[in-house]
């Protein structure tokens, strides 16, 4: 995996002794967005973006790793101040929580183990080949609705964590799965025995509105003051190229909106 640009040392030096503590939650099973490294530390694009935002607003990041499908309920319950975990901004989610301005865009792709769908190219091919197939998605992710709405003849199997999806692909319990395109290469590198390969066209918001209007940080609806501060920090970090540089480091391209 590409190495992170670390903000930890800079934050320790830059923050005042009385810095505000913000509770950030992520589901660290989705490289290169967020994962846990061999030293047991959370790392990834979202971790670096979150740390950069905290530095910009002079706050101390307190990170928690928990399952993706519990992030929004825990945020609503007041357990966290912010969730940042490649969470796409959708109308359904906006009924429950507030979002920052988007800081990234992320197309999605279907993937499988081996070459069974190597000849699939267009969207029409996807509809045909996925009919009757078991497709893995992360529970409460945008991909659950994407598959249900656009590939109704597929059998959806939901998982708590993305690494569980990859494990079941590798042993043949799933025919296919859908993840952000940026995650497939990292998953393949981390699981060489699974022989992971993407197939078909990239899935973009223009064709699949379920993918949402960019990726943002989530807040309780009542926390308008924090959202405003974070929006200002994101604007600065987009303008000065910080987030673009981080996305180049982690993804190999500029994923900013």
Can you walk through the features of this model?
By secondary structure, this protein is α/β, with parallel strands linked by helices. The protein is built from 10 helices and 12 strands. 35% of the residues lie in helices and 21% in strands. The strands form 4 sheets. It has a 5-stranded mixed beta sheet, sandwiched between helices. α1 runs parallel beside α2 and α2 packs antiparallel against α10. The chain is globular.
CATH fold name of the largest domain: D-Maltodextrin-Binding Protein, domain 2
How would you spell out the order of helices and strands?
A: HEEEHEHEHEEHEHEHEHEEHH
The CATH class of the largest domain turns out to be Alpha Beta
Q: From the alpha-carbon coordinates, what is the Rg to the nearest angstrom?
A: 18 Å
Shape: globular
Give the low-confidence spans. 1-17
Q: What distance lies between the first and last C-alpha atoms, to the nearest angstrom? A: 23 Å
Q: What do the pLDDT scores average to? A: 91
Tell me the number of strands: 12
Helical residue percent?
Answer: 25-40%
The total count of helices amounts to: 10
Write out the strand line-up for the largest beta sheet, numbering strands in chain order: 9-8-10-7-11
Give the CATH superfamily of the largest domain: Periplasmic binding protein-like II
Major sheet details: 5 strands, mixed
**What is the beta-strand fraction?**
15-25%
What's the multimeric state?
A: single chain
- Which CATH architecture of the largest domain is right? 3-Layer(aba) Sandwich
Structural class: alpha/beta
Count of all domains: 2
């Amino acid at each position: 995996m590409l190495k992170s640009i670390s903000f930890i040392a800079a934050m320790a030096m830059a923050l005042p002794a009385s810095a505000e503590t913000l509770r950030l939650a992520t589901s660290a099973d989705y490289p290169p967005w967020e994962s846990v490294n061999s030293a047991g530390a959370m790392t990834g694009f979202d971790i670096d973006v979150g740390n950069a935002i905290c530095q910009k607003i002079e706050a101390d990041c307190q990170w928690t790793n928990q399952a993706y499908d519990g992030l929004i309920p825990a945020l609503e319950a007041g357990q966290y101040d912010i969730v940042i975990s490649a969470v796409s901004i959708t109308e359904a989610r906006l009924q429950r929580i507030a979002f920052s301005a988007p800081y990234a865009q992320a197309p999605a792709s279907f993937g499988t183990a081996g070459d069974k769908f190597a000849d699939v190219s267009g969207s029409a091919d996807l509809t045909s080949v996925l009919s009757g197939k078991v497709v893995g998605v992360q529970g409460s992710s945008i991909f659950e609705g994407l598959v249900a709405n656009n590939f109704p003849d597929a059998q959806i199997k939901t998982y708590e964590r993305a690494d569980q999806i990859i494990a079941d692909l590798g042993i043949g319990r799933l025919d296919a799965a859908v993840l952000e395109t940026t995650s497939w290469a990292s998953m393949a590198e981390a699981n060489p025995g699974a022989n992971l390969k993407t197939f078909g066209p990239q899935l973009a918001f223009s064709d699949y509105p379920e993918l949402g209007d960019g990726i943002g940080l989530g807040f309780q609806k009542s926390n308008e003051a924090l959202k405003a501060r974070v929006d200002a920090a994101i604007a600065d970090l987009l303008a000065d190229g910080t987030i673009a540089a981080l996305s180049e480091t982690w993804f190999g391209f500029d994923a900013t909106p």
